[in-house]
Amino acid sequence: MQKSIAIAVASSGIAATSLPGSRTAHSTFKLPINLTKSETPPCNISKNSDQDQVLKRCQLIVWDECIMTHKGAFDALYKTLQDIKGCEAPMGGITLLFSGDFRQTLPVISKGTRADEVQVCLKSSPLWRHVRSLTVTINMRDRLLGDQTSAYFASDILKLCDGKVLFDADGELDVHPFATPVSSLAELADKVFPHLKDNYLNHTWLSERAVLDPTNVTVTKHNDQLSQSLPSAPFAYKYVDTMVDAN
Q1: Cα gap 16→8, rounded to integer Å
Q2: CB of 106 within 8 A of CB of 161?
Q3: Distances in Å between the alpha carbon of 69 and those of 74, 131, 136, 237?
Q4: What is the average per-residue pLDDT within 240-245?
């Protein structure tokens, strides 16, 4: 039996936590930082490096949440794999399985319009003509685990995405069929992070739960609230989100 390599990555850090090694696409493929250039540079993978050797033996790449990634990332990987494999076939002959739903979040463009987001998504890339679309129709949690709750939730979410849920006379949507409403941030934190003081050092427990907030202001407020509830003293880690020289 031939031993080949398959690589699984995700576009977002949240999605990557469910993968072995928790690797994002940017980390695994050393994607360029600036993907908005007219001519996207290849990935920063050196010849004969560990990454180079792994990709030479790779036969399958699974890329989750691909729809939120700038099309320049796929162009960069396209060029890099052709060079590494010495093959002019798309992606150097490696099978690339994209996973995602275009009804979800498209690439985020700072101060951009919806048209700007559509212009840089995967479907707008010249590579899309090589893609064959397949549809997942069976809920495996329901099929394998008998989890009816997951089946009902998935069905309700699809109805919401397809615009099949009716609004009331005030033009508002009743969220009760899809969610469990809470009255405060404290109640939300208790539902998502029950017994936080006893479990906050358990990385596996933490990786299985998260709160998605709509604005950075709410994120800060929620993080401060959770930090203050921990028994140990909080510690601030500084980070840099801009570069003097992109190279």
Answers
A1: 9
A2: no
A3: 8, 16, 21, 27
A4: 76
Q: Give me the DSSP letters along 77-112.
A: HHHHHHHHHT--SGGGG-EEEEE--TTSPPPP-TT-
Q: Are 111 and 75 in contact (CB under 8 A)?
A: no
Written as one letter, the residue type at 227 is: S
- Matching residue, tokens 């980070």: 239
C-alpha radius of gyration, the chain, whole number: 21
pLDDT digits (tens, 9 = 90+) for 178-203: 778 888 888 888 899 998 888 988 98
Cα–Cα nearest to 6, from 55, 45, 51, 43: 55
Phi, psi (deg, nearest 5) at residue 64? -85, 155
Q: Find out whether 89 and 76 touch, Cβ atoms under 8 Å.
A: no
Environment class of 72 (CB within 10 Å of its CB; exposed 0-12, middle 13-18, buried 19+)? buried
Rounded to two decimals, the pTM is 0.71
Q: Is the dihedral of CA 154, 156, 161, 162 positive or negative?
A: positive
Q: Is pLDDT of 242 > 80?
A: no
DSSP 130: G
Q: At what angle are helices 50-57 and 71-85 packed, to 10 degrees?
A: 80
Our measurement of the distance from residue 40's CA atom to the centroid of its chain's CA atoms, rounded to an integer in Å, reads: 21
